[in-house]
Amino acid sequence: MTRIGVITFPGSLDDGDAARAVRYAGATAVPLWHADADLHGVAAVVVPGGFSYGDYLRCGAIASFAPVMTAVVAAARGGMPVLGICNGFQILCEAGLLPGALVRNAGLHFVCRDQRLRVLAADTAWTSGYAAGQEITVPLKSGEGRYVATAGALAELRAEGRVVVEYVGAAPNGAMDGVAGICSADRRVVGLMPHPEHAIDPLTGPTADGLPFFTSVLTALAGV
Amino acid sequence: MPKPEILDPQGQAIAGALGRLGVAGVAEVRQGKHFELDVADDVDDETLHRIAGTVLANPVIEDWTVRRA
To answer: Which among A26, A21, A64 is positioned nearest to A46, based on CA atoms?
Structure first.
């Protein structure tokens, strides 16, 4: 069975749900510890949500220097699929795997709601199970989820089809150009603020719309 | 400090509070961070700039300056 790592930092919250989503998709979830630079032979990594290291300094900043992230960054540069959700997205931006940054929501309020999203890129390692243009509903819960990037970086992301998901309607956090999630140039590293791992079963989430993130990567890995 | 083009809602909230307190004439507030490092005398400026640019500040969204006191 495919082994997918889920990192736990001090302050991670959603590692349990991320591991559950990995198992729902039919893979083995391998717990990875922030202080351990060994990836234990996993084929892909999920960097989950939460408040790593208390979000001290900046969200995701200290986690981006953790020993496990050094290994993740090196593996990602070699093509290993990585998914960053919420705090995980912030960490991937701080680590330089994805361009831009996440800052305080425009309204200063923590936003917690079921959010409608549009999947724009269905050709990444984590979104091949969707149709381009498909609308999905998954939870969004963040206080610093406003995506910002330079005008040049944003134009490049749009031109290269690297805006993976965008908010339907006005961005609830003031994100530039409605960006909810983006991917790397090789389309194997994806980061997004909303939480697909909380929407894998209608019993425990608003929908099962998030599950294809976790099944898509198995397809991508099988195709290698 | 957040770069000029980065919206600073915390600074805006402070500016709004000043207005409610009856303070006139404050057009804008920008909120940033200030770090004080106690370092050995042989730590050079280049090292301090590296610390500021790679750890303390995120150059994507923040400008920074280093000052020795």
So the answer is: A21
Closest CA to A137 of A110, A157, A119: A119
Q: Which residues on B lie below 8 Å from A174 (Cβ)?
A: 7, 9
Say which amino acid occupies A41.
G
* Residue tagged active-site, from A94, A144, A197, A198: A197
Would you tell me which residues 4-63 of chain B have a C-beta closer than 8 angstroms to some C-beta of chain A?
6-7, 9-10, 13, 55-56, 58, 60-61
Alpha carbons A30 and A105: distance in angstroms, whole number? 33
Do A28 and A1 contact (CB within 8 A), yes or no?
Answer: yes
In this prediction the pTM is 0.94
DSSP alpha helix (H) spans, chain B: 9-20, 45-51
SS3 A7: strand
> Which residue among A101, A104, A107 places its CB closest to the CB of B58?
A101
Q: Shortest CA distance to A163 belongs to which of A100, A74, A86?
A: A100
A41, A1 contact by CB (below 8 A): no
* pLDDT tens-digit readout, A152-192: 999 999 999 999 999 999 999 999 999 999 999 999 999 99
ipTM of the complex: 0.83
Spatial contact of A61 and A17, defined as CB atoms under 8 Å apart? no
